[in-house]
Amino acid sequence: MLSLNVVPSSLSSVTFIKPNNQCLINASPNLKSNILSRIQSHKNHLQCHTTTFQLHESGFKSSKLSFMPTSQIPDSITKLSSFRRFLSYPFEVSPKPNHQIVKAASGDANHEGEREIVVNSNDPKSKKLKLALVFGLWYFQNIVFNIYNKKALNIFPFPWLLASFQLFVGSIWMLVLWSLKLQPCPKISKPFIIALLGPALFHTIGHISACVSFSKVAVSFTHVIKSAEPVFSVIFSSVLGDRYPIQVWLSILPIVLGCSLAAVTEVSFNAQGLWCALISNVGFVLRNIYSKRSLQNFKEVDGLNMYGWITIISLFYLFPVAIFVEGSQWIPGYYKAIEAIGKPTTFYIWVMLSGVFYHLYNQSSYQALDEISPLTFSVGNTMKRVVVIVSSVIVFRNPVRLLNGVGSAVAILGTFLYSQATAKKKVKKIEGEKKE
């Protein structure tokens, strides 16, 4: 329990309100010096000393209450909010735009003395800068992962072990965030784990298939084939009862045409690489569909936590199979890789970067989806694939034929049209639910 002493610092009066109590502080300095006003002032002064406030904030043990100018309150609140947001999402560029309102009000809402300070962070320039930083970070992490993942696979062609290590790094990362309370840990229950088993299985299939594809063909070719994921999404969802407008069906035609042309003209074509990229598409599509159906009762778990638990369960799925498939070749393959590269530390750095940035770019994608609209996210996701394809061609100097480039461009264009059509469908659905 604390008693409140306030030293007046302005000419205006401020009223602090407590149920059935009013305490007027700092009457005008031009009060007439008469007995009545002095008595009233003394009375108010005594009331303020006898009024007590109970602090409910846990951990607050100080017996003094400090005040700051009201002009500094919005900045302090903004900084505190940004700091807490940073701790929860350590790789997020900035918090969502918000409105912060600070009031010093009298008992009557329409009183002259009421003051309202509105902090509006919806500045167009800051929003554009934030959007650029979010996409820039997301693209950078994706590029780093694809480059160093391919470099590691070129000298150590064991995708099952590398894919397992990437899931291991992601699992450790999330466990550290949860243990240090940098990310709120979701409540774990048996139904929740059971509901995750299906999505985690399909995630495992999608991840290992993509990794095997990367080990067999050029990074750019794998990403062109992976741009056909919307085709499988529409087909499987339609079989399960979802309906799509004609624009969506038309958008998948250039995807099929472009991927076919790119596959026929690919210099580094490998049948296993092609099929693994296609299987990866099927795995991730089924993961998304199954997640929507099996995790409907766990909407309180945010996307990042959901991905964290899927990563952990996927590791338990994948690593035992990896040992069975290629475990006997890991030690001889390791010595060959060290002999080929010369410096063991270089190999370790490549593998570590592939593991860390695999998790980071997935984490950033969830955070980007939280920050922006589905339509903007879909455009950014399409452009991300273009950036990764171009960067991988430049880094690895992969030869690209004219028809191969045309096919890749057509496939990416189809993906863009599909994302536009489906995002608009989602927006209309959300607006319809709000009206209801």
UniProtKB/TrEMBL annotation:
Q: What is this protein called?
A: Sugar phosphate transporter domain-containing protein
**What GO terms fall under cellular component here?**
membrane
Domain Sugar phosphate transporter: start-end pairs:
129-419
Topology within the bilayer: Multi-pass membrane protein
Q: Where are the transmembrane segments?
A: 131-148, 160-180, 192-215, 248-265, 271-290, 306-325, 345-361, 373-396, 402-419
Upper taxonomic classification of the species? Eukaryota, Viridiplantae, Streptophyta, Embryophyta, Tracheophyta
Q: What's in the keyword line of the UniProt record?
A: Membrane, Transmembrane, Transmembrane helix
Tell me the compartments it is located in: Membrane
For this protein, the record's InterPro entries field holds: EmrE-like (IPR037185), Sugar_P_trans_dom (IPR004853), TPT_transporter (IPR050186)
- Output the Pfam families linked to this UniProt entry: TPT (PF03151)
- Source organism per entry reads Lupinus angustifolius (Narrow-leaved blue lupine)
